[in-house]
Amino acid sequence: MFGIGDKIVYPMHGAGIIEAIEEKEVLGKKRKYYIVRMPLGNMKVMIPLQNVEEIGIREIISIEEVEQVIAVLGDDISKMPQNWNRRYRANMDKIKSGDIYEVAMVVRNLMLRDKEKGLSTGERKMLTNAKQILISEIVLARDVEEETVEELINAAIK
């Protein structure tokens, strides 16, 4: 279980800081929720405590792991299906996993593909979303500004 002040990752949404643990009534049921402030977009999210494991909530990565993520970004493009639909689904599964390395691979692959061939509207939206998830976690892990992390990501991708 996490506590107030812990930095966590909410798969598909990004990283945030637990500001409170409150009991709220939603749809007639009283439950305890983590109130999480997401630094990007200054949004607050309520996460039911009982669903934490099912959702895949985890602690943010360490500073050492940030370097490994940057290394993943610098790797060559990995093999992706040529079929747009299969590629989209494979990338979506990686993002949903909540694994920062998988998200980094999606960002790298889509950014490199964008330089080579361009992206469809759906893949461009996916890249933006995956990049925000990646940025949010590195921002909290390194305690730096969003712009600094975006420059770091762009520099890491050849």
Would you write up a description of this structure?
The chain has 158 residues and is α+β, with helices and mostly antiparallel strands. It has 2 domains: 7-59, Thrombin, subunit H (Beta Barrel); 63-156, Methane Monooxygenase Hydroxylase, Chain G, domain 1 (Up-down Bundle), CATH 1.20.58.1290. Helices cover 51% and strands 22% of the residues. The chain contains 6 helices and 5 strands; from the N terminus they run ββββαβααααα. It has helices at residues 52-55, 63-74, 84-97, 100-116, 121-142, 146-156, and strands spanning 7-10, 14-26, 29-38, 43-48, 58-59. The radius of gyration is 17 Å and the shape is globular.
How many H/I helical runs? 6
* Estimated structural class: alpha+beta
Order of helices and strands: EEEEHEHHHHH
Question: How many independent structural domains?
Answer: 2
In CATH terms, the superfamily of the largest domain is: CarD-like, C-terminal domain
Instruction: Determine the mean pLDDT.
Output: 93
Query: What is the strand tally?
Result: 5
Q: Strand fraction band?
A: 15-25%
What percentage of residues falls in helices of 4 or more residues? 40-55%
The N- to C-terminal Cα distance equals 39 Å
CATH class division of the largest domain:
Mainly Alpha
Strand order in the largest sheet: 4-3-2-1-5
In CATH, the topology of the largest domain is named Methane Monooxygenase Hydroxylase, Chain G, domain 1
> How is the main sheet built?
5 strands, antiparallel
Computed CA radius of gyration, to the nearest angstrom: 17 Å
The unreliable regions are: none
Query: Architecture of the largest domain, CATH level 2?
Result: Up-down Bundle
Name the shape in a single word: globular
